Amino acid sequence: MMKKVLDKGYVRLVDTMGSDLSVVNSARVSFNKATESLRDEDKKLIKYLAKNDHTSPFRHATMQFEIYAPLMVARQWWKYIIGSSHQDPFTAWNESSRRYVTEAIEFYIPEENAWRSKPENMKQGSGDNLGIEIGKEATKKLLCQIEAGMKNYDWAIENGIATEQARLFIPSAYGLMVRWYWTTSLQGVAHFLNQRTDDHAQFEIRAYAEAVKSFAIDKFPIAIEALLI
């Protein structure tokens, strides 16, 4: 299952463990009252657990994703993982490394009509889209910068420089597309979604968060709805 995001990116659901029922049964294990089907009273229990911050049962179900996104999205994503309030020790993040692989190098290039203005009253974030003339010039400059850097990278590879050093020539670091696996509990998924589906989140990472959210709701409809603020 894969959802395309931006121009070249995607979110792919690799695997899941558990279901809404897993949350219920892990919460009721102390009373030895496991059930084989989800009842109305179980749905109420899930909502009660989320509302009262009884979050450990939500860590008995997990989701695993493969993500392909601009580096600026990946680093912001990681920030919200390590900043998670529950510090889930079982969250895993494994990213492709250009020390070892020389797969096709791709970059996130905003459309000419997608360059955003600096907001008037904020130190970060963005405002409305800029005019097409500025957008065309911005895209042109970005493409020129990438072309020049890639020529240097190709030169380094052709002249026998180690891949781990040649990658220093790869331009536009924040727009470089990177790929990683992310495995986390339902609580970890919800923490990320609560932070990155907010209207104040950067547009690019919000687009990825919406893709994650659609997968999470499909697989864990009751639990995710209960955990989202």
Key phrases:
single chain; 229 residues; alpha+beta; Gyrase A, domain 2; 2 domains; 5 strands; 43% helix; elongated
Give the CATH topology of the largest domain: Gyrase A, domain 2
Question: Spans with pLDDT under 50 lasting ≥5 residues?
Answer: none
CATH first level of the largest domain: Alpha Beta
Mean model confidence by pLDDT: 89
- Which sheet architecture does the biggest sheet show? 5 strands, antiparallel
Structural class, judged by helices and strands?
alpha+beta
Question: Could you give the distance between the termini?
Answer: 26 Å
| Count of DSSP H/I helices | 8
Percent in helix:
40-55%
InterPro entries: Thymidylate_synthase_ThyX, Thymidylate_synthase_ThyX_sf
EC number: 2.1.1.148
Pfam family, one: Thy1
GO molecular function: thymidylate synthase (FAD) activity
Task: State the gist of this model.
The protein has 229 residues and is of the alpha+beta class.
Task: Detail the topology: elements first, then pairings.
Blueprint: E1 2-5, E2 9-17, H1 20-28, H2 40-51, E3 62-70, H3 71-82, E4 92-95, H4 132-158, H5 163-166, E5 177-185, H6 186-196, H7 203-219, H8 221-227
Antiparallel strand pairs: 1-2, 2-3, 3-5, 4-5
Protein name: FAD-dependent thymidylate synthase
EC number: 2.1.1.148
Pfam family, one: Thy1
